[in-house]
Amino acid sequence: MFAARLACQREHLNTSGPAGTQDTDLKYCYLAKAAYDAYDHGRCRYSVDRMLPALGLGDHGYVATAFLYAAVNIVPVEHQQHWIGYVAVADKAERDRVLGYQYREIVVVWRGTSALDELFKDLEVNLQPIHGEESNKLVLVENGIQSLYATSCDSDACKNNHGSAKDHVLAELRRLVTYLRNKCPGDKIHVTATGHSLGGALATLTAWDAAAHEALAGVVVRAVTFGAPRVGNQAFCDELVGPRGVKVHRVIVDRDVVPSLPPTSFGYADAGSDVRLLHSERVVPVPFLTLLVSWHFHSLKEYLRILDSDYHERPVQVQVQDPPPVPADQFLPLPEAELDHQLNLTLPS
Asked: Residue 163 gets which letter from DSSP?
């Protein structure tokens, strides 16, 4: 079982960190892997309720509640909408096992770059005001990543969800926070945004918005990223971890170059000082192919290989054959009645 695997890693991980860090990093890394494994040419291969069980994470302690979609606007091509992540909530067993009594976690999981047009957006490294706010010109973020996160798709091509990825995630966070406050009034709520590479950058922007959202007042917000690039300038990073109070935990393989991009000479800065450096001892037999070697150490598989000593022996099994078409209504957020069933919750008496 997934929980048992986490427990057994404590004696085998070849990295150091605070108590609990090793377990939680591995947990979020597998959740991030699920976003890659479920992706299939712009869509998710599974319905919301089937995705995590189909990917071997049925006992991981989380229930997926909604999908996230991003609009990719490469001029002059019409907006394309890509499935880019999901939102999940911890069940009672996970709350008690990892988070401590009376804490319930909502996790926002973003996928990393998986399509050519997403790569083009990654390369738009010019800085611009956060969410285009002219009144806040000092806080700057990368244009391409912000475009994926905040661009609305209101055309007929966006069949799954109108609006932006930002709209989708904030709407689902509002829904789940309200739901948990009604069903679990004694539980405090944490929101963790996570992802690998581009997904980590999107997680950072999610944490920025969630921390200042009125409906999420009192909710603890953090970002846990794997091999994420820099997102914004020093003013962005200072406000993120300062006034907004976001706890940023960055996991980086020592030979991964992506976390050092875009360079600080372009005006970028690192968000937060909580960094866990993973040491890769693997020897790649093509040292003259510098770019390929760097990309090898950036892959999520390399992060999992270091975090999970059993990763190669027991990888998550992914369904190979194409699943039957998923009905359109199963791309909608999980209804509250189904949430009650999966989380075993009822209204307090």
From this structure: B
Q: For residue range 240-287, list pLDDT tens digits in order.
A: 999 999 999 999 999 899 999 999 999 999 998 899 998 877 655 555
pTM for the model = 0.87
Q: How far apart are the two ends of the chain, measured CA to CA in Å?
A: 34
Among candidate residues 245, 133, 258, 116, the one with its CA nearest the CA of residue 200:
258
pLDDT, position 229: 96
Compute the average pLDDT of residues 198-222.
96
Kindly give, in sequence order, each residue whose CB lies less than 8 Å from that of residue 256, ignoring residues fewer than 6 positions away.
227, 294, 297, 298, 302
Position 110 scores a pLDDT of 98
| Residue range 153-191, pLDDT digits in tens | 766 656 556 789 999 999 999 999 999 999 988 889 999
Identify which of 248, 247, 109, 103 has the alpha carbon closest to the alpha carbon of residue 189: 103
Nearest by Cα to 123 from 236, 289, 261: 261
Residue 31 amino acid letter: L
Q: In 3-state terms, what secondary structure has residue 114?
A: coil
Q: How far is the CA of 328 from the CAs of 57, 73, 160, 163, 233, in angstroms?
A: 23, 23, 8, 17, 40
Distance, in Å, from the CA atom of 342 to the CA atom of 264, rounded to the nearest integer, reads 46
Please report where in the chains the tokens 């976690």 appear, as a residue. Answer: 105
Q: List, in sequence order, every residue forming a beta bridge with 68; answer none if it has no partner.
A: 85
Q: What domains are defined for the chain?
A: 2-318 (3.40.50.1820)
Q: 18: cis peptide before it, omega within 30°?
A: no
User: To the nearest 10°, the Cα dihedral for 94, 211, 174, 182?
Assistant: 60
| Element counts in the chain: helices (H) and strands (E) | 12, 11
**Beta-strand (E) ranges in the chain?**
39-40, 43-44, 62-72, 80-90, 103-110, 127-129, 140-142, 188-196, 220-226, 247-253, 274-278
Nearest Cα to Cα of residue 207 among 152, 116, 286, 130 = 130
Residues in the chain: 349
Query: Which string of DSSP letters, residue by residue, matches 270-292?
Result: ---SEEEEEPP-PPPS-TT-HHH
